[in-house]
Amino acid sequence: MNLIFLGAPGAGKGTQAEKVCEKLSIPAVSTGNMIREALKNGTEMGLKAKSYMDAGQLVPDDVVIGIIKDRLAQPDCKNGFVLDGFPRTIPQAEALDAMGIVIDKVIDIEVRDDTIIQRMSGRRVCGSCGASYHVLYKKPAKEETCDKCGAPLTRRKDDDPEIVADRLRVYHEQTEPLKDYYAKTGKLRIVEGQEEVADTTALTFQALETGKAGN
Ligand code: AMP
Question: What backbone phi and psi angles, to 5 degrees, belong to 166?
């Protein structure tokens, strides 16, 4: 199954994407994680992306489209994948169509902006493997330590409240129009993000099973 997870930054799409990937044994393809990895490795692309990312802006379309094209050509994507954080603009969605990629469903996780701002302040990520946590909603077993690889957890620079406000503005202007784009294809499913991750996950799986658009 080829899936897209849409949603504002901090709506929990990454967490839901992970759950679906575990269940379906398909890879999660997160452009944000790939860019952060490139930055960590000091690649040219990573350095180019840094200024945009730090400012809460989108990295230029041609850069992310190139990353996705290479990633989806890898053998582990042959049996399906979950796109987390891509596409984020109409030109990116059009580029995906032009690659001949057929998307089965688009899950949009909806959460109010004020809730997102509150949530982002508690978000933590593993500086080593990129796994994400929350001080209230998704606590690691050992405080400030990654369950998966044991590295220390940190706060993403772009999770600072001022940057979060910019990222939400960018989301509403450039990414939200994708809801209409995919609603027209009949593949969009809306999931109302719940306070408990498990409740959102139950709704996500329900949405994956529904045949009708708009549920
Ligand atoms: P994320 O981890 O998905 O919230 O992404 C973090 C940052 O990476 C974003 O704020 C953008 O600067 C950049 N980024 C990730 N995915 C994309 C994309 N599809 N298009 C443009 N920029 C992206």
Answer: -65, -40
Nearest ligand 1 atom to alpha carbon 85: 3
* Ligand 1 in reach of 130 Cβ (< 6 A): no
> Is residue 32 in contact with ligand 1, taking CB distance under 6 Å?
yes
DSSP labels, 11-56: SSHHHHHHHHHHHHT--EEEHHHHHHHHHHTT-HHHHHHHHHHHTT
Q: Are 140 and 88 in contact (CB under 8 A)?
A: no
DSSP state of 141: S
Q: Does this model's pTM top 0.85?
A: yes
Name all domains of the chain by residue range, CATH numbers in brackets: 2-26+79-210 (3.40.50.300)
112 is catalytic: no
> What distance in angstroms lies between residue 58's CA and the mean position of ligand 1's atoms?
6
Cα–ligand 1 centroid distance for 32 (angstroms): 5
| Residue-level pLDDT at 148 | 95
**Half-sphere exposure of 192 toward its Cβ, with a 13 Å CA cutoff?**
3
pLDDT in tens, 4-40: 999 999 899 999 999 999 999 999 999 999 999 999 8
What's the rounded mean pLDDT across residues 43-67? Answer: 91
